[in-house]
Amino acid sequence: MRALLLLLTVCISIVVNAQREDKVLQKKLQALVKDFQGDAGIYVRHLKTGKTAAILADSIFPTASMIKVPITIGMFDKIEKGEIAYDSILTYKDSLLYEGDDLLGSFRNGEKIPLKTVLMLMITMSDNTASLWCQSLAGKGTTINAWLEKNGFQHTRVNSRTPGRESNKAKYGWGQTTPKEMAELVVRIREGNVISPRVSERIYRNMIRIYWDTEALSQIPPYIQTASKQGAVNQARSEVVLVNAPHGDYVFCVTTKNQKDESWTMNNEGWVLIRKVSALLWQHFEPTSRWKPAQGIDEWY
């Protein structure tokens, strides 16, 4: 009986700790979003302490390119089931092109490319042509969404090119999520709990090699490892980041929608908010750090 009571006490302690709100951080984040011209959602969790802060964290927002995290999971699920080999050699076709500045879109019709390179381009470079190709190879949005539902993600879904999701696509675009779900999905990858430990490790390695590092990542020292994915469309900007910080990992996701500012300069209000949140979190969780972005580096954002 004593052992049972002890076990119950430990379990209750874990649950309470996991749900504990960081009230100081909560107030700081609320101050940041107070005058934002649009809707802003934020979710933060310190993995070691379990402390959280949240603003509209369970509300649905557009993912833009953050949907490439579920797409890469769908692709690796197919690989782990033996339905396609990780080292497969694919043939690029002009019909796959998604107009833009993608590296894959510069390939000539009929060129060969390894699947593992396509997977890397999808995450690291956020290559849209690579991503849509992987979405199709993974079994399309329907298969990816089935994995998300099975694994407890109620709101995160692929909408584009997915039968039955037309109304959601009209409202949210390529994909949709909540700040909390997207952040916790990355935590599962970090902890080796997506499909298998080796799949989680491979996805995480791709996510620590991000080319687009001028928003949230620009406010974290370059010698600190981060795993992230970014997204942007005219009225929405978003980023999810897991920081392997000295005093314990922390994860955060910032999402926006209905932005008044639709500009594509570094001063876009959504991107400014993401940088401010990231800087605030680094200072909050690593208060003894004296690091600041190098003077003048913002000219290269």
Strand order of the largest sheet: 2-1-10-9-8
Quote the distance from N terminus to C terminus. 61 Å
**Cα-based radius of gyration, to the nearest Å:** 20 Å
Sheet/helix structural class? alpha+beta
The number of distinct β-strands equals 10
The average pLDDT score comes to: 93
Profile the largest sheet. 5 strands, antiparallel
Query: Strand portion, in percent?
Result: 15-25%
Uncertain spans: 1-17
- The best one-word shape is globular
Tally of helical runs: 10
List SSEs in N-to-C order: HHEEEHEEHHHEHEHHEEEH
Proportion of helical residues: 25-40%
Write the layout of secondary structure elements.
Layout: H1 2-18, H2 23-33, E1 39-46, E2 52-55, E3 61-62, H3 68-80, E4 89-91, E5 112-114, H4 115-124, H5 128-137, H6 140-150, E6 157-158, H7 166-172, E7 175-177, H8 179-190, H9 197-207, E8 226-233, E9 236-243, E10 250-257, H10 269-285
Antiparallel strand pairs: 1-2, 1-10, 3-7, 4-5, 6-7, 8-9, 9-10
